[in-house]
Write a structure and sequence with these properties.
15 helices, single chain, alpha/beta, 6-stranded mixed β-sheet
Length: 459
């Protein structure tokens, strides 16, 4: 494998530089005096920002973008061998490296690296930790998979030895990492277009945990059924967090304010420590905050800075994000695209004052929809009204084996008030006529369903 010497800057070209993670890596390298270029299919605020700080960006991916002065080409899992730029780099003998491999090599240059993994909650927990680390004045470098207002985007380039990033299991990307602190939030079936089954996923997380530094710490959810399998035979120290009382870090006396924000008594090793107040909603965020606290304490931050950092965190974009009001109707957007995530969002909504709950759901990928078809119907049936949009294909072709109508039919059998429309325009027209009073409207999914709520607010 090609190894970058970060003391000797080179010219790195990113195929898909406008992506949320790729752009962050480019910004880190630019700060290290590397030459960064890249291509993307369309211009965006992200590509505009990179251009301002010195990146050379072209729109459109063509073979001629791979010039002879490029020393390394970085690509994502979405790039295939037939991509013009990838093929041109191969023909020219230019080294090629995956996004995850580059991120892993960057992490190796920081003494105190933190990798946040799990099927759900990575962006929120990484964001919580970002607020805590900044409160503790640790000047971290941060790569987060969403837009975080506190750092003005998805990347923060610090000057200390602390590096914080999300660690995604898809295509085993996180197996490129060797962090000092490994956080494992949960292990569930997902990305079944890559993994064979839950045993395959458990093995992947076990391997990730095994790559934690020998003097590091594994911070793992003790509530899940796979904790022992992930930790089995590993010599590294570990601590558990979760809502069950036997965990090393747990929460007692959980309550919610009138806006659904949680608070609880922090219990560590069986001893009540202090009261923790959050400005985010739902029991799942109580659990996420426990993981963040365990990591922050391991780093050595005092509790008062940890508490202040958590209290300053009001959520990230697309995670139960308040978008506005249409009269008295509250419009919220959420990234949930897995049944467990949807359940967590519905639980959070129950603590939020409203009349009827409307969910506009856009399934994400055909393989995920097919794998969790009945589970999607089970969790969505808890809403008062459900509107289905077409499946967001993302990286996948339409196999014709599953559609949103399959979810609709299951919800109809369950007696749920459910509707399907093939276009966003039809969905918006229907909602304007039918959502009323103090209803709560949540647009939900990892695709572009957020546009529905935003269009309604404009209208």
């Amino acid at each position: 494998m090609y190894i970058i010497d970060f003391r000797k800057p080179i010219h790195v070209h990113f195929i898909g530089i406008g992506g949320i993670s790729m752009s962050g890596l480019a910004e880190i390298l630019i700060d290290r005096h590397f030459t960064a270029s890249g291509s993307d299919m369309r211009a965006s605020d992200i590509t505009g920002h990179l251009t301002k700080i010195g990146a050379h960006i072209v729109i459109g991916q063509r073979a001629e973008n791979i010039t002879d002065d490029i020393n390394l080409v970085v690509y994502t899992a979405a790039i295939h061998a037939e991509n013009e730029e990838f093929a041109a780099a191969k023909n020219k003998g230019i080294p090629r490296m995956s996004r995850a491999a580059l991120l892993g090599q960057i992490m190796d240059n920081y003494a105190r690296s933190i990798a946040v993994s799990g099927t759900h909650g990575k962006t929120t927990t990484t964001s919580m930790l970002t607020h805590i680390l900044l409160q503790g004045q640790l000047d971290p470098t941060v790569s987060v998979g969403g837009m975080l207002d506190r750092i003005g985007g998805n990347i923060r380039v610090g000057q200390s030895d602390v590096f914080l990033t999300e660690a995604c299991e898809y295509t085993n990307s996180f197996l490129e990492f060797h962090p000092l602190y490994s956080i494992i939030l949960n292990v569930e079936e997902d990305h079944m277009d890559f993994f064979k089954d839950i045993e395959d996923i458990k093995h992947s997380f076990h391997t990730f945990a095994s790559q934690t530094a020998e003097d590091g710490l594994i911070i793992i959810n003790g509530d899940m059924p796979h904790t022992e399998a992930v930790l089995q035979g590993l010599p590294q120290k570990s601590v558990t967090f979760g809502l069950a009382p036997q965990n090393d870090y747990t929460a007692a006396d959980i309550s919610y304010d009138t806006q659904g924000n949680g608070s609880y008594t922090l219990v560590v090793d069986g001893n009540a420590v202090t009261r923790v107040s959050l400005k985010v909603k739902g029991q799942h965020n109580v659990s996420n905050s426990l993981a963040a606290i365990a990591c922050a304490q391991a780093i050595g931050l005092p509790m008062e800075q940890i508490l202040a950092g958590l209290l300053s965190f009001g959520g990230t974009h697309r995670r139960f994000e308040y978008k506005g009001n249409i009269g008295d109707v509250i419009v919220v957007d959420d990234y949930a695209h897995h049944p467990t995530e949807i359940q967590a969002t519905i639980n959070a909504a129950k603590e939020y004052p409203h009349d009827d709950l409307w969910i506009v759901f856009q399934p994400h990928t055909y393989t995920r929809t097919k794998a969790f078809l009945t589970h999607f119907a089970e969790v969505l049936s808890q809403a008062d009204h459900v509107v289905l949009a077409d499946i967001y294909a993302a990286r996948e072709p339409d196999t014709g084996l599953v559609s949103s109508m399959d979810i609709v039919r299951l919800l109809e059998k369950a007696g749920t008030d459910v509707y399907y429309f093939p276009t966003f325009t039809e969905i918006e027209e229907f909602l304007l006529k039918n959502v009323r009073g103090h209803d709560l409207l949540i647009t939900m999914g990892a695709g572009n369903v957020v546009e529905i709520g935003e269009d309604l607010l404009k209208k």
